[in-house]
């Protein structure tokens, strides 16, 4: 039996600005030693590697995340990656297509870990907002964008099938941390990658919803442009 993928919240709840922190980092780490997410108020971009959580804030600084840090949305799992391929100057779209062709996993959840050197890597992070929270579209307009012509580090990506678009990002959702911990964030794009690609399949999604949060429980999502706003903000 494969390791399950744990998800707290949904990307859809970020669309209208349901950004209360409803899970602590300490709780998230009980579900995995690897993951991504964002903090309360969409406070930066998170990446967990080898059990250590990092936040890339809107200034571009990489911070260690304390146990009491709270999150509205996150994914985590216990790493059991297997080598998939070695890439040499592969562009992003070609690499993603090669992964799908080799794994035949377009209709399942899986994780990728890319470790090596990237060119023209562009990331982003969003400044923390306070109540009353703004919508995802509004916060995306305030994002900080960072880039490096050449950088070495780890890209962690979760893939979700298109039928789960809105619950997660349909396709690849990727965060990055440089080896020197001086750069990272949500990945917008990169030109080429050279290094090792590791793969981990999931046959189960453990979905946790914030049922103790009144704003989530009483919100009417039928008035939200969920997919349009997610795709605009994530790309």
Automatic annotation (TrEMBL):
Keyword entries, A-Z: Acetoin biosynthesis, Decarboxylase, Lyase
Catalytic activity, EC: 4.1.1.5
Catalysis: reaction(s): (2S)-2-acetolactate + H(+) = (R)-acetoin + CO2
Annotated pathway: Polyol metabolism; (R,R)-butane-2,3-diol biosynthesis; (R,R)-butane-2,3-diol from pyruvate: step 2/3
Entry-linked InterPro entries: Acetolactate_a_deCO2ase
CDD domains according to UniProt: acetolactate_decarboxylase
GO molecular function (one): acetolactate decarboxylase activity
SUPFAM superfamilies attached to this UniProt entry: AF0104/ALDC/Ptd012-like
One Pfam entry name: AAL_decarboxy
Family designation: Belongs to the alpha-acetolactate decarboxylase family.
Protein name stated in the entry: Alpha-acetolactate decarboxylase
Species annotation: Levilactobacillus spicheri DSM 15429
